[in-house]
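Supplementary Text 2. Reproducibility record for the structural model of the 192-residue chain.

All settings were left at their defaults, and a single model was retained for analysis rather than an ensemble. We include the record here because the model underlies the residue-level annotations in Supplementary Table 4.
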Amino acid sequence: MMRSHLSMMSAFANALVTASVALLFFFVLSPAVAAPSALIESIAATAAPSAEYSVGQLRITAPWMRATPKGATVASGYMTITNTGKEPDRLLRVESDIATTVEVHEMSVSGEVMKMRPLEKPLEIEPGGMVELKPNGYHLMFSRLRQGVNEGDKVSVTMVFEKAGKVEIELPAAGIAAKGPANEGTMPEHKM
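Retained model, structure tokens:
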């Protein structure tokens, strides 16, 4: 009986060692599977060539937004707006069919508390200046979403400027945790 018990323990130990070696082999030689968050972050941080729009003396580059989790009621959008003119211009309003309201918000840090609030005045783009709408800074806040935003979607937005006038742009949706525009080559065509 003792020999049978030792034999079972030996078989169990061998199985455990075999499983451990297999897992070690799997995780060491397969870093994408072993560290999916690193892969996702790497993909999410990949900058891509993106659309560029011009209206009046303004140039809008690198528009993008984040996909939303299921049931989300808000979304955020980003881009860079450059004023090549000699006079300031202001973003008066933003509209999109996916949300009841779209406002320019700003994030600020007070002590260790991060705050977000809508701008009290229209966003001004100084002559020869550039304003970046980016995570943790100025951004478009889509509120009371009428539908969710999935990675790969392209969301239509109308921007109205004081001097330059109206322009229609598309914001391609990157992943939920993206830190920049997604690689357009990997995004399926899906227009909203």
